[in-house]
Amino acid sequence: MPDIKPLAKEDLVMEHLVSLTYSEHLTPNLNRFADALLDGRLVGHKCPSCGRVYLPGKGYCPICVIPTGEADEVEVQDRGIVTGFTIVTPVAYYGQTATEPFVFASVLLDGADGTIGGQDIVGVPHDQVHSGMRVRAVWLPKEERTADDITNRGWGGVSGGISAFEATGEPDASFDDFKEHIF
Amino acid sequence: MPATDIAIVGFAQTPSEREASASEVQLLVPTIAAALTAANLPRSEIGFTCAGSCDYLTGGPFAFVQNLEAAGAWPPISESHVEMDGAFALYEAWVRLQHGDIDTALVFGSGKSSPSNPAEVWAQQLDPYYLAPLGLDPVSLAGLQARALLDSGKATERDFAEVVANSRRAALDNPNAQLRGTPSIEELLAEPYVRNPLRRHDLPPISDGASAVVLARGDRARELTERPVWIRGFDHRIEAHQPGHRDITESTSTTLAARKAGYDGGPIDVVELSATFSPQELILRNALGLPKSTNVNPSGGALAANPIMSVGLVRIIEAASRISAGTANRALAHATGGQILQQNLVILLEGE
Amino acid sequence: MAERCAVVGVGQTKYSKRRDDLSIPGLLREAIDRALVDAELELSDIDAVVIGKAPDAFEGVVQPEIFLADALGATNKPLLRVHTAGSVGGSTFIVGAHLIESGIHERVLSVSWEKQSEGNAQWGLAGGRGRGIGAGGAFAPWIRAYIERSGAPEYIGWQVAVKDRLNALKNPYAHLHLPDITIEKVKESPVLWDPLHFLESCPSSDGACAVVLTNEAGGRAASKPAAWVAATAVRSELGQFPGRDTVRVRAGVECAHDVYRQAGITDPRRDIDVAELYVPFSWYEPMWLEGHDIAGPGEGWKMVDAGDTEMTGSFPVNPSGGVLSSNAIGASGMIRFAEAALQVRGLAGEHQIDGARTALAQAYGGAAQYFAMGVFRSEP
């Protein structure tokens, strides 16, 4: 009789690591946003209908659903208010780069109506980070800035130019100043 | 019996491009607006919205969420999404309108194939246990279907070339098509194979595009447009996945879907088929029982422009536009899902 | 509605971190076969299949329903694939219900699933990039905002976490069975997304949930009690825009009011006997109680505090153990609808709420922007 062993669980698993590459040119408006970022400026779009300012400008206002473009560009300040945050303890997964707990904060920049998300807050212990903090951008040195992470689908944002935000030391903003911009 | 008084009252599509400089959402914003304008319908009056797209095509998990920004989702809307071609989103919206509590719906489909290699992406759609590990890619699969069709005696390579020549010529009249021309059969047959027996022109182009359709029911449809395009029948069916488990030289699900939609062969003014490889047009014509003289793919079809996830909805738009323009009164449109015609949708359209 | 919709069969898999005893088709069939047995029907009786799941990147197969057509019994039948992020299980149920209510089909199989052990959900949620925050990281700031706005004491979230896991002990299908869970253990578990503790968060599960839907004639003819669909609704809103209230989400409020109106519910707190709400992070229980106007503003946490949402309470929430005990992302919404249906059928076994005749099901997804809700009754 042939010696037939039942399959072990390991035999039933096949590793199938798939790599797919997506390479999309930045839209013209994001190209302009990226150029300004490399230059140390934050340029958003102001909707010609409702007047809301978005950073980056996506090429449309999602509320009015009308196109926005170069003619709607406005500069946004590199300082503002922390409107919401959490402290993330990293977990391991393929592609993970974080090793230490980090702040994930939404910041409402002066001059903008939409927040920028996923910002790190530095210079204060994590347990002192709070909504309402006034912060300013910590810019990367010009030669270290990059637009490589920016994509048409919303990734990247300002992170190629600004590594984090730090407290300005000003008094906190009142809740009324940012209650409509938690996210 | 499903209602037969639901009509297409407005539609729009982007010109298909090899690489759009606009993002997928930027393609959708003006397209949806144009469809609503064509329907004389303010966005706020839409009762239900349904989108069709594919995350893996757009390039990431939850990619479809961003397309919501083109739908006008503030204030909140009644809305859903299928991970399928916009034609299937149209089906879901048509089903939703059967209830009678709302009488308008907005549907859209979109996709940019340019950022990725479609032959790699769609290879991941195959059975992960038995087919994907073989490295079977979509073009080779289509090649196998073409070879089977030749071997069955149902078609010749010349027939393939004729489909292509017709497509290129018809596309001359379609400002939204991508590939146009007047190649001769001999010129086409002289080209080398890329996947024997398929030549490069037997394959679809890589396309970026978006499209949108507005539906309305009954009297509402008549209020919104002079020539509503009535959906008289609508059905879709899927077959077995393994190529060896079905006859890939036929399309039984297309025959079945057409029959359920109320078409059983015979004269029809216009037919738009989502045949992405030239042999598939022959298979589909046969499956539908179309008379030889039928006007098939006057738009140039999917060989002239293949904005995946929108291409099926575009076929419906192309058929509807001819009824709307008064040059046709009865039309069929077809959409497909999966590969080598595994899943097929048929819609039967009629003027008043 | 031209036709009524009845749930006559429910089937669930055992949810666990890794169902490595089954392939993807096998996982689906475990749920589907159980639903068919419950409905006393065969695959050949089914007219159409609706299937839903969350992003395909969680398993690494593009549109897996395409290869699953055979296993689903869908050959020569219509097959639709729904994808609305976390709410998908609910919207998949609703699309299936529409096919019945429209009169187009008589018996529909609706199934949702996820086999996320095949991929890596954290990678998927991070878009394949580093510094991923998972789902918890996205919701934590809004939870913090709720806590600050409502003045809720910190233990409310821990209380929900304990309640749902103890409820799950009465649900043999649930993933997490933590008989020793206590408030202290939840409080001491590591903080992954401040202020959420690990034990306040859902597990990552493999699983599938299937329902067999039929029309009024089929519902009345079934030998077991049917659950009657009294209402369904979906609402979506933009995920991010200036002025968005991410705590009291307008799409959630409007979706709830739509189902209440359809079902003739004027006082949800009183008219609903049991609710299965999508609570993947403990604080979403009080947030949804308020967000669906079951409790007034700032009163949701008080319901939790008073024990109202316990199985023995006046408004039981998630007697199944909820998403906190089992979270196969694509399936979780369907599980809410299936569990609500089981309650009004009187077939929820050990976690049955006595006398449940009206049940609310809710699923949400994306940036808390997609909602699918339903109301079930014991009578048509």
Key features of this structure:
heterotrimer, A: 183 residues, mainly beta, 6-stranded mixed beta sheet, 3-stranded antiparallel beta sheet, 8% helix, 28% strand, globular, C: 380 residues, alpha/beta, Peroxisomal Thiolase, Chain A, domain 1, 9-stranded mixed beta sheet, two-stranded antiparallel ribbon, 36% helix
CA-atom Rg of chain C in angstroms: 19 Å
Total strand segments of chain A: 11
CATH superfamily of the largest domain in chain C: Thiolase/Chalcone synthase
Quaternary state of the chains:
heterotrimer
What is the helix content of chain C?
Answer: 25-40%
Supply the CATH architecture of the largest domain in chain C: 3-Layer(aba) Sandwich
Note the beta-strand portion of chain C. Answer: 15-25%
Largest interface: B-C, 61 and 61 residues
Helix count of chain C?
Answer: 14
* Element pattern of chain C in H and E: EHEHEHEHHHHEEEHEHHEHHHHEE
Low-confidence runs of at least 5 consecutive residues of chain C: none
Distance between the termini of chain C: 13 Å
- Structural class given helices, strands, pairing of chain C? alpha/beta
Fill in the CATH topology of the largest domain in chain C: Peroxisomal Thiolase, Chain A, domain 1
Q: Are there runs of chain A of 5+ residues with pLDDT below 50, and where?
A: none
